[in-house]
Amino acid sequence: MSDLPHKVRGVDHVAYPTFDPAATVEFYRDVLGFPVVHSICAAGWGPEKHPDFIHFFFDIGNDDRLAFFYYFGLEPFDGGPQGDSYSRFAEDVPIFFIRSRHLAIHVDNEEDLMEYRRRLDGSDWPVEMQIQHETIESIYTHDPNGYMIELTRAMRPVTPQEDLDANLTIDALIDVVRGPDPSMANLLTRKAELIVERAADWSAEHEVGVS
């Protein structure tokens, strides 16, 4: 676990390219209700042959923003039949790999999550999945650019014990992927070894805390 001071304060913005700014605005502003909060009209920016572009931002709460670039005159790039405006993948690329890159936006409760489900289901981009997994419940769809979007709410708080477990898991993962045979079985074995190795230190810390 790192001892470095934690200085950041969330996401300023996440940015994606779009070839369909009109549908992008319809999806995020008119369907989901995310206000447009900033735009940059960039004429003559960049090196030679750089196209003019507009960079526009949506408010996604907590002073965080979701942004898009639209480049005038730029046509979509060729590629495989799967993917999004940024990356096109061949047919043999697993869909779970493509979907692993997505944006998840937090809401406070189940009522808010279901309100976004209602908005999406009444639009051209209905919810594709609704899943409860571990501590969260999420709905998923793809925006007009093919990007997977997740809206998620916490079903319960994450405990300090789960944070500890997460760090154990990641330490075990790093050890295993640097070895000759990365696998889930070896990760779980290494995690068990780390638990045994660190148990004495945890017990000492607990005794100090209750004395």
What does this protein look like?
- The model has no long low-confidence stretch (mean pLDDT 93).
- The chain has 5 helices and 10 strands; from the N terminus they run βαβββββαβαβββαα.
- The chain has 211 residues and is of the alpha+beta class.
- Helix 4 (160-177) crosses helix 5.
- Strand 8 (129-133) and strand 9 (136-142) form a beta hairpin.
- The radius of gyration is 22 Å and the shape is globular.
- The chain has helices spanning 21-31, 95-99, 110-121, 160-177, 184-210, and strands at 13-17, 36-42, 53-59, 65-71, 82-83, 88-89, 102-106, 129-133, 136-142, 148-154.
- The strands form 3 sheets. Strands 1-4-3-2 form a 4-stranded mixed beta sheet, with helices on one face. It has a 4-stranded mixed beta sheet with strand order 7-10-9-8, covered by helices on one side.
- 12% of the residues are buried.
